[in-house]
Amino acid sequence: MAATRLFWERGYEGTSIGDLTEAMGIRPGSLYAAFKDKKSLFQEVVHSYGRSPVGGFVAVALEEEPTAHGAFARILREAAVIYPDPSHPAGCLTISAATNVAPQDAEIEAFLRNLRNENLATFEARLRVAQQEGELPPSANPRSLAAYFAAVIQGMSQRARDGATAAELTETAELALDAWPGARR
Amino acid sequence: MAATRLFWERGYEGTSIGDLTEAMGIRPGSLYAAFKDKKSLFQEVVHSYGRSPVGGFVAVALEEEPTAHGAFARILREAAVIYPDPSHPAGCLTISAATNVAPQDAEIEAFLRNLRNENLATFEARLRVAQQEGELPPSANPRSLAAYFAAVIQGMSQRARDGATAAELTETAELALDAWPGARR
DNA sequence: CGATTTGTTGAGCGATTACTCAAGAAAGAA
DNA sequence: TTCTTTCTTGAGTAATCGCTCAACAAATCG
Questions:
Q1: Residue numbers in B near A117 (CB within 8 A)
Q2: Residue A184 above 90 pLDDT?
Q3: What is the pLDDT of residues A36-52, one digit of tens each?
Q4: Residue ranges covered by each domain of chain A
Q5: Does A13 sit within 8 Å of B168, measured CB to CB?
Q6: Which of A9, A14, B21, B47 sits at 20 to 30 Å (Cα–Cα) from B112?
Q7: Cα–Cα distance measured from residue B119 to residue A132, given in angstroms and rounded to the nearest whole number
Q8: Which residue in the set B116, B117, B155 is minimally distant from A152, CB to CB?
Q9: pLDDT at res. A182
């Protein structure tokens, strides 16, 4: 949807109803008939983004990769290529669309924050399973590792918005994987 | 200044002139007499932030620490404590105050982006010196390492705004330092 | 002191914000 | 066809945005 691109690029508050109606080729009345209001439209956009290949690659990797290391390595390497891809706005919509907002939109800020923290919990759960299965040594800390990878991914999204290329972000991904218990290039 | 807290917490567009005049206890006319306009006030705020202990800890560490490893270890560990400090808004003003804006404020977005990319260049320069001095092996890539640490720091700022504690961020910092050539906990 | 400068004030500017609604057009059912 | 339902439209709402200005007060100067 055209709304996705706008919210992705300019964020929630940076995108006006006028921008949206113009891009979608409709009048405000139609927009408010189809979606309740701006908040609801945004939340619908975020959900459809999460179900798309570009926004859902993290969940797909966690599901498809048999090992935790394989999953996180794939997530970081794919993020390095997807985030700076010029076919869409840079970075991740969930990470950057509402990082700082006016008090009246705190609800939207919290909505995305919750999504991010849910992803963090998913990371931790996957690493905990890996530890139970013996892939991760008992000395490893699933919670710490999850928070670390979440921070790296959020940082890579920001760097992509600042102009980092896929090559640069791939090097960042490889360095980040050195933190994996026992890993070394 | 009161304006710093507001911009830090809500971002550039999330802070209105009304918010600023109320917090500063002045009327709009006085604000526009003292600072030219909202953009100029914001830029002045960012500059004073960069000269403060909280906003300038990166430059101080790079200046004071004799080794590059010492400098980056200190930067990460201090960021882990400073970013979630409850005595001020979470995270880094430069990183989060204008990540997504309306087209009319693209100038402000670029202003902060340039600051971030300058910091990245400073990182790379410090690492290049370390390589010339033999602290870093010839196989290391100063540019990649700099981009990696920049991404981690930006990610830590975001995580702090999402509620991460100093303890959690410290663990992230320690994991991040594993990427240092030859390092291992 | 009076004169001049500097700073502050409240009122209000035009533009933009998210959003609404009565009226009309289009589509579907009988 | 006619009736009903669904969707779209242009005009408009009140509120807020960044910003300006003539009038006034405070401070500075000779």
A1: 162-163
A2: no
A3: 999 999 999 999 999 99
A4: 53-177
A5: no
A6: B21
A7: 41
A8: B155
A9: 85
Architecture of domain B55-185: Orthogonal Bundle (1.10)
Q: Is A71 left (phi over 0), alpha (psi -120 to 50) or beta?
A: alpha
Q: Look at chain A and count its residues.
A: 185
Detail the protein residues whose CB sits closer than 7 A to any atom belonging to strand C.
A 13, 15-19, 27-29, 32, 37-39; B 26-30, 33-34, 102
Retrieve residue A98's tokens.
């509402």
Whole-number percent of chain A with pLDDT over 90:
96
**Residue B158 phi, psi dihedral angles, 5° rounding:** -60, -45
CATH architecture for residues B1-52: Orthogonal Bundle (1.10)
State pLDDT tens for residues A70-80. 999 999 999 99
CA dist A177 and A172 (Å) reads: 9
**Residue A28, nucleotide of least CA–C1' distance:** C19
What CATH number was assigned to the domain covering residues A53-177? 1.10.357.10
Cβ of residue A153 closer than 8 Å to a chain B Cβ: yes
Contact assignment for B144 to A95 by CB distance below 8 Å = no
Residues of chain B below pLDDT 50: none
